[in-house]
Amino acid sequence: EPEVTQTPSHQVTQMGQEVILRCVPISNHLYFYWYRQILGQKVEFLVSFYNNEISEKSEIFDDQFSVERPDGSNFTLKIRSTKLEDSAMYFCASRRAGGVYNEQFFGPGTRLTVL
Amino acid sequence: AQSVTQLGSHVSVSEGALVLLRCNYSSSVPPYLFWYVQYPNQGLQLLLKYTSAATLVKGINGFEAEFKKSETSFHLTKPSAHMSDAAEYFCAVSDGSGNTGKLIFGQGTTLQVKP
Fold first, then answer.
1. Using CB atoms, which residue from A33, A41, A108 is nearest to B102?
2. In B10-102, where does DSSP find H-type helix?
3. How far apart are CA A5 and CA A112, in angstroms?
4. What is the CB-side half-sphere exposure of residue A69 using CA atoms within 13 A?
5. I want to staple B102 with a disulfide (CB 3.0 to 4.6 A). Which of A45, B4, B45, B88 is the partner?
6. Is A34 helix (H, G, I), strand (E, B) or coil?
7. Which residues of A80-102 are buried (b: 16+ CB within 10 A; e: fewer)?
8. For residue range B17-71, what is the model confidence (pLDDT) as tens digits?
């Protein structure tokens, strides 16, 4: 069964460093998302991506964040200069074309720890 | 703006007992509603979804949920809990009027199943 994969599973970085979180969505899906979950808090929407551009982003997704689909299979989230408060679990998700009622498939997440 | 409230961050039941996880939503447009489950160290997996068809929705692993517009609720139930049901459960709403399909999550409910 197709699944969304994410690497690495755990990333530790120093404050101010750049990190890139990687995701491989399901191959025939067209909509891609990043969410994050700070420990003990709810899962929050960061950004959605369709047709090679951002379709929506939340207030969290400021200039320090960027997304890219560099090669037609990977979907990346870059944080340019990490802050302590960026420590969280980051989930990638994808869904196929059609209505927004279609299921989003989630990856297992990347736990980012900023020291 | 849409929102989801899950009543009870932690629910404990005995094996074989009824499971009831509560979810209330707020939406200015007809919502699409989802329940996801997260097992330890795994991504979010869809249990079931409401997409304006039948108000009683059956999902995987014996779970079901009933959409009640008058109560703005979408509570998740299972007649008989199994030890393997122990996990984190998330209720989410998707904006049917937009086309990004972003999910707004509740705070999550941890289900503990006692032998």
1. A33
2. none
3. 16
4. 20
5. A45
6. strand
7. eebeeebbbbbbbbbbeeeebbb
8. 999 999 999 987 778 899 999 998 788 999 999 987 788 999 999 999 999 999 9
A1 pLDDT band (50/70/90 cuts)?
A: confident
Where on the phi/psi map is residue B83: left (φ > 0), alpha (ψ -120 to 50), or beta?
Answer: alpha
Contact (Cβ atoms closer than 8 angstroms) between residue A23 and residue A76: yes
pLDDT of residue B29: 77
- In A1-115, DSSP assigns E strands to 5-7, 10-13, 19-24, 31-37, 43-50, 53-57, 65-68, 75-79, 88-95, 105-106, 110-114
- Judging contacts by C-beta atoms under 8 Å, the chain A residues touching residue B108 are 42-43
Amino acid, single-letter form, for residue A88: A
Q: Which amino acid, residue B10?
A: H
Amino acid (1-letter code) at residue B111 = L
Q: Judged by CB atoms within 8 Å, which residues 21-80 of A form the interface with B?
A: 31, 33, 35, 41-45, 48, 50, 55-56
Sign of CA dihedral A111, A114, B3, B5: positive
